[in-house]
Amino acid sequence: MARLQTISEGEIQQMSSVLQSRVVTEVVAQVQSMLGQRQSATLDIAVTGESGSGKSTFINAFRGIADDDDDPRAAKTGVTETTQEIIAYDHPTAPTVRLWDLPGIGTPTFQPQRYLEDVGLTKYDFFIIVASERFRECHVTLASCVAQAGKKFYFVRNKVDNDLEASARRRGHMGLSEEAVLREIRDNCKAGLQRIGAGQPQVFLLSCFQPQRFDFALLHETLERELEGHKRHVFLLALPNLTAAVLERKQQALAGSVWQTAMAACLSAAMPGGAVHSSVPMLMSTLQSFQRSFGLDTNSLLRLANMTGKSSQELYGEVRSTSGRDLSRQTVEGMLSQVALGQQVLSALLESRIPVLGNIISGGVSFMASYSLLKSAIKDLREDAERVMHRALDGADNTREDVPDPGYFYAD
User: What are the boundaries of each domain within the chain?
Assistant: First the structure.
């Protein structure tokens, strides 16, 4: 009968090292895959409508970019149709979200079925049909074809601020309230769309020059609610900060993935030869992405200043957190070290007796520090973003174009 062999301490250490190395490598790959799937999710939004309806202005407003012919990132706008071909515009802080400016509809040669084939119907997640001044037969026809093809559409009635001003001039003596005028516009659009038999159509009344008014926030909320999975996540983070509710939902969405980032940092530190501070580059990249999601990075603040007529210095003055103002490698290292310091003795003791547990505890220090840092940063950045939002929207300089009588009661 064979005698049971004794395993030496050195062999135990070697086996533990190999075992941990393999397990950590597999888990790191899984966690990084989860993070990668969420970050790389794409969302393609088709924006179509008549010439002069404000498609390009809508795209700029959605992306938080001012209408500026000198800005290469802005969709080109004008009184006449400026979109003669399909152009994709990436979101400045969420590049996997793309808005596609499609050629105008409503011309005598417009054929909806051929139009949808030419623009590549299947590659878009949904359509936004933009109209202004009046509801037309071409809107019904296009919406019907989009619905029949199994794609969702959302109907945007743009330039309602101009409609209100024109109606006040034309019918001021009747004493119609703003609410009554907007209700008539909405009901007119719904009545036209109901002819396609798609149930209760969704109509949103907007002013792209005053996104904080009317239905812009409602449109964002509806799109977010009806998207699923990772597409919903990237869409939410691309939303402009128009309400405190949007900021709260961003905070919740970012907080939901904190454990994954902290775990990846933890396991990197737990790898043989790893150290707590090896997680710093990953944490720095994550914190910078949080800044962009809350619109607090330098480029986002400059765009917001350009949109609202405020100075970037004035907006930056509302950013008060360390994560927003003083994000540096030294800051991150200091916070990680502060948490790790209190557990150094326990970590060293366990590592000397049980090497595997020692490595895991070292990773645990990194996990707790990373998790605490990221959760705290999200909260602080959300508070910064809310102050910036209130400052930006307080008396914002919203330039509007003048239009004639809207004539929204009529359809061709």
Answer: 16-39+250-393, 42-240
Q: Which CATH superfamily, name and number, covers 42-240? A: P-loop containing nucleotide triphosphate hydrolases (3.40.50.300)
Residue from 374, 221, 380 nearest 296 by CA: 380
The rounded average pLDDT for each run of 10 residues, N- to C-terminus, in the chain (412 residues) is 48 50 63 76 93 89 78 65 76 93 82 87 94 87 89 93 82 69 91 78 90 91 93 93 92 88 72 58 90 94 90 94 86 73 50 48 62 88 96 66 43 42
Q: What is the pTM of this model?
A: 0.79
d(CA 315, CA 302): 9
d(CA 294, CA 306): 17
CA-CA distance, 282 to 280, in Å (whole number)?
5
Q: How many CA atoms does the CB half-sphere of 171 hold within 13 Å?
A: 14
Residue 260 CB coordination number (10 Å): 16
